[in-house]
Amino acid sequence: MTEAIKIETGQGYWAPLIFVVALLGVLILAVLIWSRGRREYKRGTEQELPFLSGEKVENPRVGALHLYWGLAEALRPLLERLRGWHSGNINEYAGWFLVILAVVVLLVLA
């Protein structure tokens, strides 16, 4: 009998066949759970309307500021100061991300 494929990583082992079998088991379990679900859904009825945090939503376009209103209200002084730095240019955000990433890498490696 052949030995199962096993890759030594220094942190344990990775056996692809065992993981594929486990993945298939999880998928089968998910399909079984899904198949026992309710069949009451009807298109074109009230069931299609958005339902957010226990409330029926009149306007289906709900932005992040509506979802996080309390947080935004509490942080309003900070957000107002940061709004001046907001240019909307993705190149600036990417540049700042790279600068901060470089600083974090230097701190971790030091």
Helix content: 40-55%
Strand order of the largest sheet: 1-2
The number of distinct helices, counting runs of at least 4 residues, comes to 5
- Overall geometry comes to flat
Low-confidence parts lasting 5 or more residues at pLDDT below 50? none
Structural class: mainly alpha
Estimate what percentage of residues fall within beta strands: 5-15%
**Structural Rg:** 25 Å
Number of strands: 4
H/E element order: EEHEEHHHH
What distance separates the N and C termini? 50 Å
**How many strands, what sense, and barrel or not for the largest sheet?**
2 strands, antiparallel
Overall residue-averaged pLDDT value: 82
Quick summary:
53% of the residues lie in helices and 7% in strands. It has helices at 16-35, 64-67, 69-74, 76-83, 90-109; strands spanning 7-8, 13-14, 51-52, 55-56.
